């Protein structure tokens, strides 16, 4: 698998967007749920991108200037190339690769170092769908969404808190505990959290049968 799905930290990361049309707009919209900051450069910007900048002024910056094959950039974490000029796109992609800056090409997917997937977010649960076809990925994602939203988001959050607390206490058998609590009602997870987490109101101490270890759990 060349393009491997993973989650990365977007806090404080800067994305250079070269282009001001619909392709650039769609990529920005697809990344707005992140914490990326977008720096957009184009000769002109579509009304949709201008509206996005007004809605998210702290996240999106626009600079109107002509882009050509000699345009030089640096100090960006990612680059999205989305102009309507093939030669300019090719030059920008080559420059990004020389600088080892991950680049996404809206014109030729094979030139891209990363791709965007359709995302379904439900509480702490995030599911990505990609079939190398954005339109069909979206259709599949829309079909999956009702099934994803059947999961108990509150219970997922409780289990995440329990797991974090168990790892902090170096407790063993985290995976087994997670599986057991997952198959039980949410009330069991709440009770378990009260037993194990000293920051939870009603904390009663370490749960019966819990084991501590100086080693990290196998559940990472």
Question: What are the main properties of this structure?
Answer:
single chain, 220 residues, alpha/beta, Rossmann fold, five-stranded parallel β-sheet, 7 strands, 15% strand, oxidoreductase, ferrochelatase activity, precorrin-2 dehydrogenase activity, Met8-like, precorrin-2 dehydrogenase
Plain-language structure description:
There is one protein chain. This protein has 220 residues and is α/β, with parallel strands linked by helices. Among the domains are: 14-116, Rossmann fold (3-Layer(aba) Sandwich); 153-198. It is built from seven helices and seven strands; from the N terminus they run E-H-E-H-E-E-H-E-E-E-H-H-H-H. The chain has helices spanning 22-31, 47-55, 86-98, 134-148, 153-168, 174-183, 186-196, and strands at 14-18, 37-42, 60-64, 78-81, 103-105, 118-122, 125-129. It has a five-stranded parallel β-sheet, with helices on both faces. The protein is elongated and about 60 Å long. The two termini are 23 Å apart. InterPro entries: Met8-like (IPR028161), NAD(P)-bd_dom_sf (IPR036291), Sirohaem_synthase_N (IPR006367). Residues 198-220 are annotated as: Disordered.
The structure class reads alpha/beta
Distance between the termini: 23 Å
Rg value: 23 Å
- Please outline the major beta sheet: 5 strands, parallel
* Average pLDDT figure: 89
CATH topology of the domain at 14-116: Rossmann fold
Percent of residues in helices: 25-40%
The CATH superfamily name of the domain at 14-116 is NAD(P)-binding Rossmann-like Domain
Number of strands: 7
Q: In what range is the share of β-strand residues?
A: 15-25%
